[in-house]
Amino acid sequence: MIITIGGLAGTGTTTAAKVLSEKLDVPFVSAGSIFRDMAKERGMSVLEFSEFAENNTDIDKEIDKRQADLAESSENLIIEGRLSAYFVKADLRIWLFTPFDVRAERIADRESKTVDLAKHEIEIREKSEALRYLDIHNIDITDLDIYDLVINTGSFAPDEIAEIILTTLKVI
């Protein structure tokens, strides 16, 4: 079974993927880990590579290709990434969303910054990413039609989210 989990920053995609991975005893990989691997392959820090990737659409395309290749060569895998559902042949495509204020609080806590700063950075990042996704892939990140399951993670704890997904898996 191949499962993709996507969502904007602060929605808990990595946490959900980890918890689900443990419950199903299925490995998971994140687009972020692929990004970090690519930085290491090029002898760059993540920050250096991030700056390099901003002006190089081939990096986004390579991340997408690597996710697809991993899924194709795996029988059971959870792939976590904002656009994974678009590039991976998955049995279940999940999108996590959370109210903006909750996401900002989570990110502020995680990154030890003020909520106001987190909100400002989220807005800038998401506008930039939305334009990049549209430009590179012709993907409107706000169009959720591709997803089989959409969960508001602001309403549930990580274990509860995993249970919702496990219940869904029983009916597909």
Automatic annotation (TrEMBL):
GO molecular-function term, one example from the UniProt record: CMP kinase activity
**Keyword hit for ATP-binding:** yes
Q: Where does the UniProt entry say this protein principally localizes?
A: cytoplasm
Q: What is its EC number?
A: 2.7.4.25
| Binding-site residues for ATP, renumbered to this chain | G7, L8, A9, G10, T11, G12, T13, T14, T15
Localization of this protein: Cytoplasm
Share an example GO biological-process annotation for this protein: pyrimidine nucleotide metabolic process
Keywords linked to the UniProt accession:
ATP-binding, Cytoplasm, Kinase, Nucleotide-binding, Transferase
What's the family?
Belongs to the cytidylate kinase family. Type 2 subfamily.
Its name, as the record gives it, is Cytidylate kinase
- Give the source species: Methanobrevibacter woesei
Q: Which gene encodes it?
A: cmk_2
